[in-house]
Each structure stands twice: as C-alpha cells, then as structure tokens.
Amino acid sequence: MATFTRLWAGRHSLLADVNVELRTAEINKDRELRAAITIQAIRRGLVARRVIRTKLVSCKTLQRIWRGFLAKQYTCHISMLRDKRRAHELWTRAAVILQKTFRAFYSRRYKHSYYERQAYLASVSLKEEKVRELSDALAESTYMEREQLRHDTEQQEFTTLAKDLHHLVSTSNIPGVFNSPYNMEPVRAFGAPVETHLKTTFAKSQYLQRHMMRSLGAQRYNALRGHMTGTGNSFGDSTSYTHSSYPRPLEPVQEEGRRGKGSSRAA
Fold first, then answer.
1. pLDDT digits (tens, 9 = 90+) for 1-11
2. DSSP H helical segments within 10-113, as ranges?
3. Residue 254 — very low, low, confident or very high, per pLDDT cuts 50/70/90?
4. Residues sharing a CB contact under 8 Å with residue 261, sequence separation 6 or more, in sequence order
5. Nearest 5°: phi and psi at 6?
C-alpha cells in the first residue's frame, strides 16, 4: 500500500518522463526504422545465402552423382564395343588364315604345279636375257651412230670456221695464237694441231683465190698456180704465204696486174 501511494504521488514526474521519451522516440523514429530495416535485410540476406548455399551444395552433389552414373554407363558401353571389335577382329583374322590356307592348298593341288611354274619362270628369265641383250646392242649401236653424227657435225662446223675466218698462224719468227711457246705442245683438235687444220682448210676458202689474185696479179697468180703441184694443200703448206696481208710485188707490173684484175672480173 505504501508503494502504491509513493508511485501515485510521483505520477506527474513519470508522465513528464514518458512525454520526453515519446518526443525522443518520435524524433528517432525514422533513424530507428532505417536501422531496423537494415538489420532485417542483413538477417534475411544471411538466411537466404545459407539456403542458397545449401541448395547449391545439394545441386552439386546431385549433378556429381548423375554425371558419375552417366560416365559409368558410357564407360561400360565403350568397353562393350571394344570387346566386340576385338572379338570381331580375332574371328576375322582366323577366318582369313583359314581361307588363305585352304586356297593355297587348293591352288597347289588342283590349279598350279610347282615344277611347271619353275619351268615357266626359267623360260621367262631366258627370254628376258635375250631381250635385254638385244636392247643393249640396239642402244649401243644407236649411241655409236649418234656419237658419229655428233663428231661429224662438230668436225664440219670446225672446218667451216677454220676455212671462212682469219686466224693468226705461226711464222718462222713469231708463234701463232694456237701455238704458244708456253704450252708443252700445240693446241689440238680432232687429233691434229689447230694450225694444221687452219692451213689445210684455208686452201679451200673462197677468199684465197681472190686474195692471191689481188696480191700477185692475175698473170703471176695463174703462172704460180700452174707450177705448183696439188690442188688445195699446197697453198696451206707453202712457206712463201705465211700471213693474210701478203704484200704486193715491188716490180713494175702494176699495169699487168690491173689488166689481170680486170680480165678476172670480166671472166
């Protein structure tokens, strides 16, 4: 009873405190509301993340189990196919060996004879040797003909060049281009020295008669030609004609040479 009386007497101060607290609560209402919302969001997020984590772990476990099951099924299927392939290859190999053995036996027994085949191979070898010898002989003859034709062609070309061109040959004092004193022996072509070819073939040149007639005159050239023996080699072997620029004679036979030149042109 005393306690109630004391509380009833102090009710006015308590109401003042309540009003103060109500005003303070009204002032802090928005801040406390935001704080409560934040606390609830954090709590709900924590709970939601825990649920999601649990579901994720469960999903991973289910996926792992299912994938393992599928992998085992696929492995068993692959193993079965491999075993079937190996068995098929084994039976195929055995069948091939059996067929090969039987066919060989049947061929040797009823179709082919070993001794007849050996005789046939011997005859084929003999015929091959004969054909090879004939082919070698034909190839050798063809090669010799081609070599002879090439040799004749080269010799003809060399003769043409040596006959129709001007070359410096050796004299009694000066060696020629193809007879250098530094060489142990003169330059050869077709088994003979080049200068011999030049002297031999130049006598057949179309420029020799014209040059000798211009150098000596028509009458002297005809007289010299009548006294010389041979037809072509005498001009090449003669020691009097050693250079292509053979000088004109110093005797007063210019008029005679001119008349001979004119007569040769008229001829």
1. 677 777 777 66
2. 11-27, 29-106
3. very low
4. 213, 214, 217, 218
5. -65, -40
